[in-house]
Amino acid sequence: MAKYLDLNRANWDDRVPAHIASADYAVQRFLDDPAFLSDVVRFDLPLLGDVSGLRGVHLQCHIGTDTISLARLGASMTGLDFSGAAVAAAARLAAATGIGASFVQADVYDAADVLEPGSFDLVYTGVGALTWLPDIRRWGRVVADLLRPGGRLFIRDGHPMLYTLDIDNDGRLVVTDPYFETSDARVSDYPGTYVQTDAVIEHTVTHWWNHGIGETVTALLEAGLTLTGLAEHDTVPWRAFPGEAMASAGGGEWRLAEMPERLAASFTIRAVKNS
């Protein structure tokens, strides 16, 4: 299993410079506008609610733009990511914006070992996180370990149905990958990233897994959380399919260009740790 971590970490280290420079992450706007929030967090706000005064941890925080956005909303935030390059970039951005967020480099499965367990009011996980994890039940236990009794989880991520699909030569959506978690990883060899960039990604091989909605919910229930909300959305904050298959929905979101109601592209889960 260590091989997947090494491969994925190298790939995400390579992505950091491209993402910092990308308009999609809007790093300069964070520097110029002290009220600016990421598109992802702005989308989350109606379901996320008030986070002011909460002690929060953002798992798999990448370069910290969502973490800093949550801090700007009044939460006391810690970001955790396995990429040293991403954590360093996040810490620099927080310092440059005057935000008091802290950042820790660690694998998500080790979060309760490097942070104070049972001390967080909020565990937040953003889009594109769970697919890099081989064991969703283990992740659920980490969430429970971090939260205090009554503390809450908020996650929005790409829908597992989205991750099963590809575009065939006739432009049709076809199911090509598993919906459910498998013991073996899916292996991708892709030289780019999901933002527009001319940067070269040297380490192109990644390992990933899908997790069905039922598997994710069950992982949380088994870990001692109570589900308080499950929503499915027809948009996702990246252009998941090439060409004309997707159209902009505004706010950094994309949906199928034709009959977007065919596909749940992302989901939001809210849960509370039982007392």
- The share of residues in extended strands comes to 25-35%
CATH superfamily: Vaccinia Virus protein VP39
Under CATH at level 1, the class stands as: Alpha Beta
Order of helices and strands: HHHEHEHEHEHEEEEEHEEEE
Structure notes:
The protein is of the alpha/beta class and 275 residues long. It has one domain: Rossmann fold. It has 8 helices and 13 strands. The protein has helices at residues 2-21, 27-32, 39-48, 65-72, 84-97, 111-114, 136-146, 213-222; strands at 55-59, 76-81, 102-105, 120-125, 147-158, 165-167, 173-175, 186-189, 205-208, 225-233, 246-250, 253-256, 266-273. The protein has a 7-stranded mixed beta sheet with strand order 3-2-1-4-5-13-10, with helices on both faces. The chain has a two-stranded antiparallel ribbon with strand order 6-7. It has a two-stranded antiparallel ribbon with strand order 8-9. β4 (120-125), α7 and β5 (147-158) form a beta-alpha-beta unit. α1 (2-21) packs parallel to α5 (84-97) and α7 (136-146) crosses α8 (213-222). The longest helix has 20 residues, at 2-21. The protein starts with a helix and ends with a strand. The model has no long low-confidence stretch (mean pLDDT 95).
Sequence-ordered SSE layout with sheet pairings:
Blueprint: H1 2-21, H2 27-32, H3 39-48, E1 55-59, H4 65-72, E2 76-81, H5 84-97, E3 102-105, H6 111-114, E4 120-125, H7 136-146, E5 147-158, E6 165-167, E7 173-175, E8 186-189, E9 205-208, H8 213-222, E10 225-233, E11 246-250, E12 253-256, E13 266-273
Parallel strand pairs: 1-2, 1-4, 2-3, 4-5
Antiparallel strand pairs: 5-13, 6-7, 8-9, 10-13, 11-12
Helix pairs in contact: 1-5, 7-8
